[in-house]
Design a protein that fits this description.
With about 250 residues, this protein is α/β, with parallel strands linked by helices. About 40% of the residues lie in helices and about 20% in strands. The protein has 2 domains: about 120 residues, 3-Layer(aba) Sandwich (Rossmann fold), CATH 3.40.50; about 100 residues, Rossmann fold (3-Layer(aba) Sandwich). It has 8 helices and 9 strands. The strands form 2 sheets. The protein has a 5-stranded mixed sheet with strand order 2-1-3-4-9, with helices on both faces. The protein has a 4-stranded parallel sheet with strand order 6-5-7-8, sandwiched between helices. The longest helix is centred in the first third of the chain and has 17 residues. The chain is elongated, with a radius of gyration of 19 Å. The two termini are about 20 Å apart.
Length: about 250
């Protein structure tokens, strides 16, 4: 019988304790959706266990197959450079395959929408509500293009308007996007943080949402995010086109 790979969820890490707590809660939800799958968590910075430490422990146990999943919404610097570099330092004998990032995904749009409804909107509000899709921001043009594409796709689902905003590295900021939606004539304005966990940049998004009518929560440990995690894992399992990072 072939042993199933270990799923290693890789989060960035933060000095804000809410970040790690949210990551651990999400991983617990993943485990609840796939009993029997071994799921480990590793952080690139600030929190423990580190990715390097988890890989050393797995190798010492005799684990041979790992799927490393970046807990990221877009494919930017961390997914392209930081994570592959850390995985290349893994102990010999580990076969490591890097899964794709979480976004974009229709499930993530469903999670965003549910967070807005939890914050007070109703499906009947869509046609008169402008939404700010507020992301952390990136210097990577590919990541920015993905956020802009998601905003256009989400608008087509029935919202009055959807505008992207960025907490760093790129304009507009959340408060600017809120003001533009007001000027557009939206009956109400909502801010939907397209971020996974609380922290410095999500707090900046929240401050920028002061002029909005509704501020949704971060995606967090929502069941939709957990399902995307498992989908990305399963895509690696069934694909022969994902190259091993280590051998």
């Amino acid at each position: 019988m072939v042993q199933e790979p270990v799923l290693l969820v890789i989060a960035h890490g933060s000095r804000d304790p809410r970040h790690a707590a949210t990551v651990h809660a999400l991983v617990e939800r993943v485990r609840s959706l796939r009993p029997g799958l071994r799921v480990e968590t590793g952080f690139l910075d600030f929190n423990i266990p580190s990715v390097r430490g988890v890989l050393r422990s797995l190798a010492a146990e005799g684990v041979r197959d790992v799927v490393a999943l970046p807990l990221l919404l877009t494919r930017a610097f961390h997914a392209k450079a930081d994570i592959p570099a850390v995985l290349r330092e893994a102990p010999p004998g580990l076969r490591i395959r890097q899964a794709g990032v979480l976004g974009p995904s229709p499930l993530l749009l469903s999670a965003l929408e549910r967070r807005l409804y939890e914050a007070g909107l109703t499906p009947g509000d869509k046609a008169s509500t402008g939404v700010v899709l507020a992301s952390a921001g990136s210097t990577d043009p590919e990541a920015i293009a993905v956020i802009e594409s998601i905003a256009r796709q989400w608008w087509r689902s029935g919202w009055y308007a959807v505008r992207p905003a960025f907490a760093s590295a790129r304009l507009p900021r959340t408060e600017d996007a809120v003001a533009r939606l007001r000027a557009l004539g939206c009956a109400r304005v909502a801010v939907a943080p397209y971020v996974l966990a609380p922290g410095f940049l999500p707090d900046r998004i929240a401050r920028g949402a002061g002029g909005a009518d509704v501020l949704a929560d971060v995606l967090g440990d929502s069941v939709e995010v957990a399902r995307v995690v498992l989908r990305r894992f399963e895509e690696v399992e069934v694909s022969s086109g994902v190259a091993a990072v280590g051998a």
